[in-house]
Automatic annotation (TrEMBL):
Keywords: Capsid protein, Signal, Virion. PANTHER family: PROTEIN U-RELATED (PTHR37089). Residues 40-185 form the Spore coat protein U/FanG domain. This is Spore coat protein U-like protein. InterPro entries: Adhesion_dom_sf, Spore_coat_component, Spore_coat_U/FanG.
Length: 188
């Protein structure tokens, strides 16, 4: 009797399974017959403006402080003291990255204490003359208002190193921190 029960169970299970598979097949056919597709597009754009960025910034609309020149401490009477500008980002040059094809120019303007077309560091009415240069040998002076062409931009940054030299010119100067701020303009 037990064998009969197993055989009846197998036949019923087999029929139920056949019916279930048949229903799934019919339902799949019915669904496929009603499926539809539609396609479209997405418009994507990006407008790149001709622009330049200084020292790794995003844009040159306002450059802020692009670097500093700090002379080593000197005694009250000194000969030539040399220094190199350290740009923001700790490089030894101003870096300018522009849209390829642009021809950027840097104009190094006056300082806050200029006298007789010479830049001056000042402290409590005392001044120390200093000059800026594009080369370490200090032969190519950046005079007040000089415009320096950086070449034609490609995909790499253009650089402009700035070197400085100050001298007391044999005068005894009072102790203190002498300062100046030079205006720099980038155009393209």
């Amino acid at each position: 009797m037990e064998g009969c029960f197993i055989m009846i169970y197998r036949k019923m299970t087999s029929r139920v399974l056949s019916i279930a598979v048949g229903m799934i097949a019919v339902s799949g056919v019915a669904t496929s017959a009603h499926a539809q597709t539609a396609s479209g597009t997405i418009g994507v754009s990006l407008n790149i403006l001709a622009a330049c960025a200084v020292n790794g910034g995003n844009s040159a609309a306002t450059m802020g402080r692009i670097g500093t020149i700090a002379f080593a401490d000197q005694s009250g009477v000194f000969g030539n003291a040399d220094a190199t500008m350290v740009a923001q980002g700790s490089t030894n040059a101003v870096t300018v990255l522009c849209t390829p094809g642009l021809a950027p120019k840097v104009t190094v303007g006056a300082g806050a204490n200029d006298a007789g077309n010479v830049r001056q560091l000042a402290y409590l009415g005392q001044t120390v003359a200093y000059r800026l240069y594009t080369d370490a040998s200090r032969q190519d002076e950046i005079t007040i208002g000089r415009q320096i062409s950086l070449g034609t931009a490609a995909t790499s940054a253009l650089t402009l190193p700035i070197f400085a030299r100050a001298s007391s010119n044999g005068l005894a100067l009072p102790a203190g921190t002498y300062t100046d701020t030079v205006q720099v303009t980038l155009s393209w």
